[in-house]
Amino acid sequence: MLKNEQFVAGYLSQLKRELGIFNDELEKIMSNIEFFTVGGNSKKAPEWQRTAGIDNNNDVYAPAIICGDESMVMMSATFDGEPIATYDDHVFLRIKWMRQNNPLDLELLNKIERRILLSKHTA
Q: CB of 79 within 8 A of CB of 42?
């Protein structure tokens, strides 16, 4: 595990303790998110970077790294009270929040959202 990944995992554990979120509650939240990977086997990006999720409310979650340093973005989202999902030990955030906080990547976020919504409806 990379140093940044260890920080993210440790921070999530600490956050769960401080906020009183128990593992079964986190499991309930995570079980409502279905993840899809696009792009097949790519040497350009690992699987988790080509993955996004969608919950029961049709909110799409994308890798937090799109907005910059994963740990800093996660802390900002936590401060805003934003729900956080994890996949393969990486942080995923709702695209709605990412659009408001990182408007430079609107085209990429819109593309991810369209592909995931299409994947959910064709699955």
A: no
